[in-house]
């Protein structure tokens, strides 16, 4: 099996940061720094920043994504945005199932599955987040939790749709805490996910499937994490808010 079958994806997750004007300024600063990237570069931004971000990124190698979408096409869901709306707005990527959505906004494995379905149906590329909380790691059930989240989210996803999904393995205890998983811990779980994809689909599908690590990845630790065999990129929170730090991570993935 050959890691070069997979093009790394470095995706920023801005979370609830940056106004449209700040989004524009940050992307203008990033553009020249990541122009020679030999990997996919994505920035997932708040809904209100999408237009400004897409305008600023136009003509560059930076792709823009949203941070969530609803499962219904339209209807009485105050405050939500549909996958159709994102597609119509020209947004190519969407994050689904981020642990902050699961933790603070009642997202379940089932609503994640429904949102994945809607996003794929609308023609979006999905960054599906999975990961265990600290108590689950301590109990030794990381693999069980991550496999269950993955299985439910992918139920109903056909093999030919896998090209439009990547998975971000994000141990919740490493998100925003400065406590990164060791490269070995990150690789171990990414490998488990890849083996699950091989079981659910085929080995060839698993070999091509992009699996990111996320959780306090930064300019100092990215190279070592990205060098792991089963780690094909990163979902970056805090370090995606600084152009120079994000560019170092993009460089590390381009090696
Ligand atoms: P972090 O966030 O890099 O700030 O830990 C990662 C994420 O939540 O996607």
Describe the structure.
The chain is α/β, with parallel strands linked by helices. The protein has a single domain, classed as Aldolase class I (TIM Barrel). It has helices at residues 20-34, 50-57, 83-89, 99-104, 109-122, 134-138, 142-154, 183-200, 203-208, 222-226, 243-253; strands spanning 9-13, 40-44, 62-66, 93-96, 125-130, 165-169, 211-214, 233-236. It has an 8-stranded parallel β-barrel with strand order 1-2-3-4-5-6-7-8, surrounded by 5 helices. Helix 3 (83-89) links the parallel strand 3 (62-66) and strand 4. The mean pLDDT is 97. It binds 2-phosphoglycolic acid. The site of 2-phosphoglycolic acid has 13 residues, from strand 8.
Can you tag this structure with a few keywords?
single chain; 255 residues; alpha/beta; TIM Barrel; 8-stranded parallel barrel; binds 2-phosphoglycolic acid
